[in-house]
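Field reference: sequence -> structure
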Amino acid sequence: ATKDELETRARNIIQQTSDSVVAYKFNRQIVLPLGLFEGTRRLIESIHEEGLLAIMDCKINDIGNTNGWITRYYLDAGFDAVIVNPLVGWEGGLDTVFKLVRERKRAVITLCYMSHPAADEGYGLSVAMDEKKKKHEPLYMTFARRAVSWDADAVIVGATYPDRIREVRSMLGEDIPILSPGVGAQGGSAREAIDAGASYVIAARSVCNAENTRSAARELADQTY
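Structure field:
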């Protein structure tokens, strides 16, 4: 598809689904061809006109200076939230992101457990909880602890892993929302994710590729009530 065709299709999806969603998550496969301050910004403006939010799934994971520039660009384009990878740590890592986001009254969403089949190969690794390395826990639970201590605005836990959602919810309490991707095309169930403790679900291909995007979005939304 050309840039114009891609932007037109995205705009149509927004128009067809805006009454069933609270936010739209952008991935790099749409930002790169459309341009951050061109087509992407226009789509964000359309989303804001509907009174909804735009999230950039950039999984920020670099040194602080680089993270700062990445964050500035996305916030300047109009995004309301950015997704970060807590693996890089706080000092000289994500502290810059949180500072910039707080200054602009936007939001930071941290990864905790992704939705793909190999998620456990990384997020499920056993890590030490103390300097003596006598107590261990899965990395995703460490990430959940970081979300609490950093005062993250939300965390990501795949809808394909309801048991992980339950574990993370037990750590987070009720104050931090869980966003669960992987509904539909990846096999996750919106209803099961919500029942396990997710606050919102994320569906992309199962809605965007549906014959009737409005109906597909509405059907998934109904499962979250």
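Note: DSSP finds ten helices and nine strands in the chain.
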